[in-house]
Amino acid sequence: MAWAFFAVFAAFAVAGYLGMSRSLIVERSHLLAKTRRDDVPLSVTFAFLLYPGTLLACGLDRRFGGSPPLPLLVQVAALGLFVAGYVFAIQAMRANPFFSAAVRIQSERGHRLVDQGPYRFVRHPGYAGSVAAHIVLPIALGSLWGLVPAVLGGLLVAVRILGEERTLRDGLPGYAEYTARVRWRLVPGVW
Fold first, then answer.
1. Quick check: is 143 in a domain?
2. What is the pLDDT of residue 35?
3. Residue closest to 60 by CA, chosen among 150, 133, 146
4. Do 89 and 81 form a contact (C-beta atoms < 8 A)?
5. pTM for the whole structure
6. Contact 96, 114 (CB under 8 A)
7. Is 111 helix (H, G, I), strand (E, B) or coil?
8. pLDDT at 3
9. Could you tell me if residue 187 is inside a domain?
10. Is the CB of residue 50 less than 8 Å from the CB of residue 154?
11. What is the pLDDT of residues 36-73, one digit of tens each?
12. pLDDT per residue over 20-39, tens digit each?
């Protein structure tokens, strides 16, 4: 399953890159210069937990046998949910030309409200898809202990969303009205 995950993840990395506009590639290549300094520790921590932290926990769990064996069908279904989460996140990236990892208003790029595509359902579909994907990833890899960093990373993403929404509400015209139309930040019917 780890090889299947790496193949799927590599395919999504290539698809994500090919699906990005050139201006967004340039924007995302200068992240540290444009990111609010108070956001850096939070974003670095959740990124570590969701990516190498979860994979490290899964690997150690599998190596030392901390989790009971999971049925192959459950693992395959979880990998399918991982794929669905990343498809949703990539759709958000394709719909939003301002899909930056930096929390900021991109006034030099003509930043405007995007409420099309998956933004019709949740206000942060990129986060929704990637967090969902990474929470089911440990199941796909046969590790219950991998859920610990994945869930912690997901909770930190929720904290980041609260700060990001303050920035968007204060600086992006129409965002307050958008929050009244699209009530859910991350999970429809929940939050």
1. yes
2. 65
3. 146
4. no
5. 0.87
6. yes
7. coil
8. 85
9. no
10. yes
11. 777 778 888 988 998 899 999 999 999 998 999 999 99
12. 777 777 776 665 556 677 77
Q: How far is CA 144 from CA 53, 55, 60, 108, in A?
A: 14, 12, 11, 45
**Distances from the Cα of 61 to the Cα of 23, 47, 57, 136, 154, angstroms:** 41, 20, 6, 15, 20
- The closest alpha carbon to 19, from 29, 11, 30, belongs to 11
Total domains, the chain: 1
- The boundaries of the domain holding residue 90 are 2-18+37-100+114-181
- What is d(CA 72, CA 165) in angstroms, rounded to the nearest whole number? 40
pLDDT of 75: 96
pLDDT digits (tens, 9 = 90+) for 86-131: 999 999 988 999 988 888 888 888 999 999 999 999 999 999 999 9
* Residue 176 CA from chain centroid, whole number: 23
Buried b (16+ CB within 10 A) or exposed e, 59-83: eebbeeeebeebeeeebeebbebbb
Distance CA 149, CA 133 (A): 13
Does any domain span residue 92?
yes
Residue type (1 letter), 107? S
The CATH code of the domain that includes 119 is 1.20.120.1630
Residue with token string 């219950």:
144
Section 170-178 average pLDDT: 95
Does residue 26 lie in a domain region? no
10 Å Cβ neighbour count for 146? 28
